[in-house]
C-alpha cells in the first residue's frame, strides 16, 4: 500500500487471450454497456432515418435525371429505365434549354443580385440606425422594421399587383390603373417588382444579422482609431466596414440561397410576362410531368444551394481569424444624431411604410372595394369576406369567411404544420440529447452533420426531390403523394436544422451532469428521461415546436408541389385563388395568413423570450 | 465497507495518448483516498470509471469483490446499479425539483415508501445542516448551500462508496475550509470508503488517509500524505506536492551544485550516492545569523538574496547560490535585503536524491544490489514514457 505503485510490473499484465475470444468478450462488454444506455443505438436509428429522408430523395433525383422516364422513350430513343444523358442535354444544350434553364438562371442571378443589394442597403442602413444612433423611436422601430419578415413572402407580390396591375393580364386591375395612371408591363410584372418585393421581405434578415454583428464589435477598436487621429468617416471605412465584411458576405449568401428556393413571388409576378426563375421553371416542369427535366433542374438548384453554403462556411472560417469577440467595450455606443434624429426617424418610417403599411393597406382595400382605388362609400363592400353567394367566381362562389374551404385549409395547416412542428421539436431535442451524450464519438458528429443537411437544399428543390422519391411505391415505403404524412415529413425535415440546432444548444447548456447524477442515484434510462431530462428541457421543447410551427404556417415553396385537393393548406389555397384570378379572395386569404403568422411570431417571442434572429426559419 | 480494486485499467479518448494507462490501484476499505494531480492527469477519468459513468478500454474494476467492469469476462454493471454516491464539481442539482425532492430522488427510484423517503431525506439534510432549505429550489441557494444539498442527496441513499469530483473547487476560501472539516466528519461518522479527486495538494494533505498522485494517466505514487511529502517517489511528485515547491536542481550545473554532489557522494558511497537531480524543501534550508555556527554535519553555503516575500507568519526568500536559484522558507520576519550575501545551511539527510529518470534513489541503508536496481529503473522508464 505504502509502496510506490507507479510501476505496474508487480502485477503481471493479464495474459493475452486468443484474438477471437478477447474480441468476443470485448463485444460482450460493449453490448452490456449499450443495453443500459441506449444512446448509441438511438443515434444510429436517427442517422438511418435522416439519411433516408434527406439523402434518399437526393439520390432519387440523381437517378431520375439519368434514366429514361416512361413516356420519354420516343424522344430519348432509348428504353425506359436505361441510362441516358437525354435530360441533361435537354436542360443544358437543346433548343428548349434557353427557355428551360439558361434564361431562368440568368434571371435568378439578376434577381438575387438585385434583392441582395436592396436588402443590404435597406437592412444595413436600418441596422446602423438602430444599433449605432439615438434615432427617435428606436425601440418601436426595432420591432416594426422586422415585421416584413413575419409576413409570408408573397404578400408583397400580391400587394404589388393590387397597386400596379394593368389590364394586360386577367382579373381586376390595380389601384393605380383604376386612378387612370397607366402602369407599363415592366413596372407591373417581372424583374423589377420581383426584386423590390423580395428585397422588402428579406431586408429584416440582413438587419438582424448586421445588427447583431454591429452590437458585437468591440467599440474599443473604433475608439483606438479615433484616438490615433482618424475621423469618423475614416473609422467607418477603414475599421467598422472591414469588421462587418463577414456578416455582409454571410447575409448575401444566405439571401441568395433563399431566393434560389423561393417560389411565391416570382410565380405571382413573373407569370403574366413569362419571367421565369429557376424555381418557377422547376415548378412548370413538375406540372407538365417532365420528371427527368424536373430532376435535372432540382439537381442544379441543389448544387448551387450547396455551393452557396459551402462558400459561406469557408468565408466564415476565414473570418474567424479576425472575429470580433465582444470585449468590455462592446456596450451600446450610439452616436447622437442631434437635429437629424427626427429626419432619421422619418427615413426609417418610410421604410416601414413601404414594407408594411402600403402592402397591407392596399391588400386590405382590394378586399373591401368593388372597384379598386375608388374610395366612395357606395364602393365599399364586405362581400368578398362574408357574402353567401358571389357572382363570377364559380370556383369559390362565396366570401372567404363563408363556406368550408378556408376553414378546411386552416385546419389542414394547423394539423399538418402542427404535427410536423411537434415531430421536429421532439426529434431536434433527441438529436441534441444524442449529440451531447455521445460526445465526440463518430455517431454524435455524424448526426449533427446530417441534421444540418436540409439547410443546404433550397426548399423547392427539396420538395421536387421528395416528389421523385415518394411519388411511387419504393420497397416497403408506399407512395405517399397526396397523403398528409408526406407533407408532415417534408415540413419536419426542412425545419429540422433549426430544431436540432436549438436542441443541441439546449442540451449542451444543460450538460450531462444532471442526467449522470440521476444515474448514480439509481435511475434507469427511461426514469432519467422521464423525471430529469424532459422536465428540465420543457422550455426548450416548447420553443423547438413553436418556431417550426410559426415558420411552417407561411411555408409555400416546399408544399406547393406536394399538396393535393384533399390536403390544401392556407398558403396553397391563396395561390390557387391567384391562379383562378380571384384576386380579392386571394388577398383576403393572404391577409388571414399574415395576421395569423404575425400574431404567432409576436406571441412566441413574448412567450419564449426568443427573438427572430434565432429562429430565422421561414 | 468495500475495497475498490482497479487492475490494468486503460482508457483513451480518440487517437491521443491514453487518459489512463495500465492503472493498478487498491483503495482500502474505509479509507479517505485522494486522487491528486494536475488537470488532465486522468484522476477524474479514474473516478468516473469507478462510478461506471465511463467505460473501460481494458482491465477490470471490482468493489468489495463484486466485479463492476471486466473486459475479460465481458461484464459491466451500469452506474445506477453500483449503489455508489457521487458528488459533482458543479453539484448537478436538478433545477426543476425542490431541495427535498432532489434528496428524495434516489429513494424514489428505489421505490421506497413516501413516509420513509421523507424521513430519510430529512435526516440527510439535517446531517448537512441544510434542512431549513427543504422547500426551496436549488437556484435560490448559494454555492456552499448547494454543495451541502448535493452531499445530502448522496448520503440519503446510504451508499457504501462515496466518490467526490473536485467538490470544493467552486467554493470560496472560507467555505472550502468549513467543507473540508465537514467531509472529514462524514468520513469519521459513517466510515464510508471515500474517493476524492482534487488538484489542490493542500486539500489532499489535510483530509486524506491515502494520497494517489497521478500524472499523464499513470500513478506516480500512492502513500499516506506525510510519506508523499517526505519521501516523494520521483521529481514530479516532489515538485507537485508542497508549497512553495521543492527546490530541484541538476548536479554539475555550477560550482554550488558540484559542491552539494561531492558532499552527498562522501556521505552515501555507491550508486545510491550518485544522483542526477537533487531536491531540497524550502523549509529544510536555514538562514544562518551572522554569528551563528553551523553544526558539523550541516552543509553550509553562501548565497545572494534576490527577493524576500513575507506573508506574516513566514517569509519566502529567493536566493542565488552561484547561479542556482533556491527558495527558502523561514518563520517569522527575516532581515534579508536584496543584494545581501547570506549564509545558508541544510542537513544532508534533508536532501532528496533522484536518478536520471527522476526516480527517487533508495536510502543508503536499504541499498539494493546494483543490477536489480538498474533493471527496475528501466521498467519504470518504460512506464514513464508509455
Oligomer: heterodimer
Text of the CATH class of the largest domain in chain B = Alpha Beta
Number of helical stretches of at least 4 residues of chain B: 10
Low-confidence stretches of chain B: 366-386
Alpha-beta content class of chain B? alpha+beta
The major beta sheet of chain A can be summarized as: none
Number of helices, where a helix is a run of at least 4 consecutive DSSP H or I residues of chain A = 27
Q: What is the CATH H-level superfamily of the largest domain in chain A?
A: MetI-like
Most extensive interface between two protein chains, with residue counts = A-B, 45 and 62 residues
Give the C-alpha Rg of chain B.
Answer: 25 Å
How many structural domains are formed by the residues of chain B?
2
End-to-end separation of chain B in angstroms reads 34 Å
User: What's the overall geometry of chain A?
Assistant: globular
The average pLDDT score of chain A comes to 81
Could you characterize what this model shows?
The complex is a heterodimer of chains A (618) and B (386). Chain A is mostly helical and 618 residues long. In chain A, 68% of the residues lie in helices and 0% in strands. Chain A is built from 27 helices and no strands. Chain B has 2 domains: 4-240, Rossmann fold, CATH 3.40.50; 247-385, OB fold (Dihydrolipoamide Acetyltransferase, E2P). Chain B has 10 helices and 19 strands. Chain B is elongated and about 75 Å long. The chains are: A mainly alpha (618), B alpha+beta (386). The interface between A and B is large, with 45 and 62 residues.
